Amino acid sequence: MRRSASATALSLLLTSVVTAAGGPAWGAAHARIEGTGSSMAANAMSQFVADVQQKGLQVVYTATGSAAGRKDFANQVNDFAISDLPFRGYDPRTGEDDSSRGRPFAYLPLVGSATTFPFHVVVDGALVRDLKLSGDTLARIFTNQITEWSDPRITADNGGRELPALPITPVLHAEGSGAGWQFTSYLADRFPALWGPFAGANAPTEYFPLRGNAISANGSDGVMHQIASVNGAIGYDEYSYALAVGYPVASVGNASGAFVAPTPQATSVSLTYAKVNNNPASPDYLTADLSRLYTATDPRVYPLASYVYTILPTGSGADERRLTTAKRQTLVDFFHYALCAGQTTIEHIGYAPLPPNLVAAGFDQLRRLHDADPAVDVSALASCDATGSGTGGGVPLDASDETAPYEGAVALQVAGGTAVHLRQLDPGTPAGHPVQGTDPTGHRHAWVFTGSLSGISVGDSRPGQPGWTLSGQSTDFVNGATTVSAAHFGWTPALVAAGSDAEGLPVAGPAIAPRMQVPDSLGLAGVSMLAGAPGGSGLGTQHVRADMVLWIPDTSPTGTYTGTLTLTLISG
């Protein structure tokens, strides 16, 4: 269901960093734990490790690559592993064993991430920052079918804008990389006629073949260093690394034909299309089949979003040589933090938080450490858990229902007269006349306008609680012959408690900054999440609001600038 609310003046985004809530004062005995694996998760893990160190936990994590982390786990040389893909039984590239070799384990979803395509193309002395690449074009670039940036397919992807006749240098991961697995899984599924002959077999691999003009580097930091060093380079890497060094990444074409940037909010929306294994008896419980992202026709989907998993040791006795009660306690308390308060600290570094249902399922996995060692205290897992548990006895009952089931409905509600009236901040103050972040000289300034979006709510009466996502996108602002891009318009969403009774854990969307403030931001020119309720949540009414912000050049003519904000509600 879709409604529109018109914005009749201007608005501004105030960026805020969400910090973790204070954690428990751990009283149980702890011991240092060591993990290895995914570089995709390394920046999130660094954040988690630093946070818990202040609380007295000692955790060491080394990003050796997903393949090496799984091998370390199987050889019992780490206390846990992080991997972007599950064990596969054997490595199809090398024929080597890729299993836990009998070491008992459970998968624990950790964060949502995205495999992205950072690039380095300089035109007239300036780094190109906006690039669109279809899946077909990406496949041809990385299989040596497209070798120059002036190729007509790249020009067509970018609306006729031609890049220079500069050689393309693909930059690959030299180690067994989860990003490589995610990218080649996509290629094998969507472009087998290109990938199969190039790779020698139409199958995914963590080791991208090094051929043609390609170069390789170890680790995500190494890949980003190579990209930054070579004009004409493009690589595949985790979004967090490109974001950390300020390098642009390509917007990727999805099955709807839309080009989508790999923002955390796009990753969150995309992962609602993942098919998660919900069978607790399965050895792959909580892992996800991502192939539905490749063909999803939702224009908001970034097709290379994915989950990162902790491989958690759950054995005891002879099956588990490394763990002690103190180490298991550290595993429980560390990953309790990572799955709860830690999820609020990672969006600004490029990751997508887990939905509440996966947090709750992850807690169930952590409880298996208590099953292995009853001395491990898992009482902390009672918080952040959206589910309850209990035992008891009773008398069997039955009832016969012959009435058609109630299905309910979900609807977007916009209060009558809703509009956003933006008012200019005092131009005589620094806040009202800041330097444009897009101006490298620091001489150009902006006028700032702020306002508030209110009167918006989502009512969901569906018993099945499939969840919902409410997103927004703005048109450009127009004043006569002058146009201000919607990329310079942003918001900070929030949930409204008064009058809301939605069940579960609805969440507000992330803050979106104006591009004049943050150069890489798409602002509200792109589709951005205002609020959402994951599966198992949202039954009832949830009111939402947003602080709005608009930056315009201080050279803009006076007058009233108007635009339209379109809100879109999507079920599930």
Automatic annotation (TrEMBL):
Keyword Signal: yes
Statement: the UniProt record of this protein carries the keyword Signal: yes
Record's keyword terms, sorted: Signal
N-terminal signal peptide: 1-20
Domain PBP: 27-315
InterPro entries to which the protein is assigned, alphabetical: PBP_domain (IPR024370), Phosphate-bind_PstS (IPR050962)
Pfam families: PBP_like_2
Family: Belongs to the PstS family.
Name of the protein this chain belongs to: Phosphate ABC transporter substrate-binding protein PstS
Organism in which the protein naturally occurs: Dactylosporangium salmoneum
Lineage, opening ranks: Bacteria, Bacillati, Actinomycetota, Actinomycetes, Micromonosporales
GN (gene name): pstS_2
